[in-house]
Design a protein that fits this description.
The protein is an alpha+beta fold and 554 residues long. The chain contains ten helices and 16 strands. It has helices at residues 15-27, 129-234, 244-248, 263-269, 278-289, 296-300, 317-333, 346-359, 362-369, 390-428; strands spanning 2-6, 29-33, 50-51, 58-59, 87-90, 98-101, 241-243, 275-277, 445-448, 452-457, 461-466, 473-481, 491-495, 507-514, 519-527, 530-537.
Length: 554
């Protein structure tokens, strides 16, 4: 059945055109079968046989909308639900026309705002087209205003970007000059430093060598004392000789591994003779046994490490003895140290004094005579090298100052180089056709959801941080503009974020839209570890276009 309806056709209309058509529709009613759009009206000429729109069949005109599906494409039943694949056109006067599936016709649910889809179902539908149309027009009006404002802001952004780019280029040139100056400075300070380090090193080496000599002399001395002590220990009958028998009492000196020092082995240890006096022992025998020899004193009275009891008795005499020896050693080359030597061990003392006289080397003279500008610390450890003499210390101080000046200059050069690097990097970024996106560089924009705080730092990275604590997850670093060829600046791509468990590295697409404010509008994760952010910025606003995306559909 043909009906007279107000006609409004077309999708994706601009606001101006829409308003025009709304006005026109109010004035014109065009006769055509139910469910046919104004554009398709000419296919349905009254009383002329109808040919299906796919050309598959021709039927008498009265069979159009007779509730029986003749055409494969459903075009003979635009106003009924007879064809499963047909579509019904609602004119929606006062608002925007639309197609709905034929199956929705007379199904009891109001789909079209003009109520025409429910003409025979008994459903009570209210015509809401005028109201919806008004709201939408208001909305579009607002959007248009926003786009206009946004576009104005964008002009400022472009101007600022141009200025900032020029400033950066000037700054870069300045820094390049600074860099050249610092390079000269660094080189000259390097020469000064190297010139100061050479005498410093020589003086330090001299000091160290002298110290090594002192240590070597002391080690030798100690070793001799040990040999003498051992001689006394081995000389069981105190006759002033060590015999094979006496050697044999020390099973640890066994050389063939049978646990016993045989006569033959003892003789070999004694250098092929049956006994040796103290001099031969020290010169010939001691070197061969010193590594294996176990002191009777130590083995017989093992030192049990005990927690000292306050005011308690002395521990073993041997420990005292060792302690004194240590004190004495220190006293030998430690300046101004006069720690008491006990009365015990007078024999040992005597021996040591003798040996000292023999062994006093150049190194000791060096330390005895040197004027130390730094007082020795009390209780200096045996192995600790004494402080440098004044002359050496002056050289060290001079070299240290030169080193500091050099490294300070080198640090400043590095800072200048790093500033140059950052500016150069920034100047290489594609900030849009007119640099309108440059203002976002170095900025971050956040959006909080139930679970996370999302952070977008344009041209840098995207991150996600759990709202209730936990570390930040990298959702991708700046990769490139990723919109379609004709709208390249509509999407930003960030990739190579934190790896997703059994999945890809996290990545984010940022969909831009025009808005007065620069802000994240929404965040989502359409597929695991692949994120989508909607982001508004005036930089995306085009002249006379409210938005480059969704709202075209309205
Ligand atoms: C974290 C978040 C989520 C992500 C899962 C994947 O929970 O980064 O966004 O989906 O890891 O395991």
């Amino acid at each position: 059945m043909a009906v007279r309806v107000a006609a409004l056709g077309g999708r994706s209309l601009g606001l101006g055109l829409l308003l025009l058509l709304v006005a026109a529709a109010a004035a014109t009613e065009v006769k055509r079968p139910r469910g046919v759009s104004l554009q398709n009206r000419h296919f349905y000429e009254e009383n002329i046989p109808f040919t299906c729109l796919d050309g598959s069949k021709t039927i008498p005109f009265h069979e159009v909308n007779d509730d029986y599906c003749d055409c494969k494409d459903g075009s003979d039943e635009p106003g009924t639900s007879a064809c499963p694949n047909g579509s019904y056109h609602c004119s929606n006067a006062g608002h925007r026309s639309e197609y709905i599936p034929s199956s929705h016709v007379n199904d009891g649910i109001c789909d079209c705002c003009d109520t025409t889809d429910e003409y025979n179902s008994g459903a009570t539908c209210l015509n809401t087209c005028k109201e919806q149309g008004r709201k939408e027009r208001e909305n579009m009006q607002k959007m248009a205003e926003m786009a206009k404002e946004g576009f104005k802001l964008k002009q400022q952004l472009i101007e600022d970007a141009k200025k900032s780019r020029e400033d950066k280029q000037l700054k870069l040139a300045e820094l390049q000059k600074e860099k050249a100056n610092w390079e000269i400075q660094v080189e000259s300070l390097r020469t000064v430093k190297e010139a100061a380090e050479q005498p410093e090193q020589e003086a330090k080496d001299t000091h160290k060598n002298a110290w090594d000599e002192v240590q070597a002399a002391h080690n030798l001395e100690k070793n001799k004392a040990k040999a003498a002590e051992t001689f006394k220990e081995l000389d069981d009958n105190e006759d002033g000789f060590i015999t094979m028998n006496e050697i044999q009492t020390h099973a640890e000196l066994d050389s063939d591994g049978d646990g016993v020092v045989s006569e033959q082995e003892a003789e070999t240890l004694l250098g092929g003779v049956s006994h040796v006096d103290v001099a031969s022992f020290q010169e010939v025998v001691w070197a061969g046994i010193q590594d294996k020899y176990k002191s009777e004193a130590v083995t017989e009275t093992p030192i049990v490490p005990e927690v000292p009891v306050e005011g308690g008795a002395d521990s073993s005499r041997e420990v005292d003895h060792e302690d004194h020896r240590k004190d004495e050693d220190e006293d030998d080359y430690g300046e101004g140290q006069d720690e008491g030597v006990g009365d015990d061990d007078s024999e040992d003392d005597g021996e040591e004094e003798e040996e000292e006289e023999e062994e006093d080397g150049a190194g000791e003279d060096y330390y005895k005579n040197r004027p130390s500008h730094v007082p020795e610390k009390e209780g200096t450890e045996e192995e600790k090298m004494p402080a440098y003499d004044e002359e050496t210390q002056v050289l060290i101080d001079v070299a240290e100052k030169a080193r500091n000046e050099f490294s300070e200059a080198e640090k400043l050069l590095k800072e200048v180089e790093s500033s140059i690097g950052s500016i150069e990097k920034e100047l290489l970024v594609d900030f849009g056709p007119d640099g309108e996106y440059a203002y976002m560089f170095d900025q971050c924009y956040e959006m909080t959801t139930n679970e996370y705080v999302y952070k977008l730092c344009p041209f840098n990275k995207v991150a996600q941080k759990p709202k209730h604590g936990g570390s930040e997850t990298n959702l991708g670093v700046w990769s490139s503009w990723a919109g379609p060829e004709n709208n390249k600046f509509s999407f930003m791509k960030y990739d190579h974020g934190t790896g997703c468990w059994q999945g890809p590295n996290r990545s984010t697409m940022v969909k831009l839209s025009c808005g007065r404010e620069t802000m994240v509008l929404s965040t989502s994760e359409p597929s695991r570890c692949e994120y989508l952010m909607e982001f508004s910025t005036p930089a995306f606003c085009q002249e006379g276009v409210h938005d480059g995306s969704d709202h075209d559909e309205l």
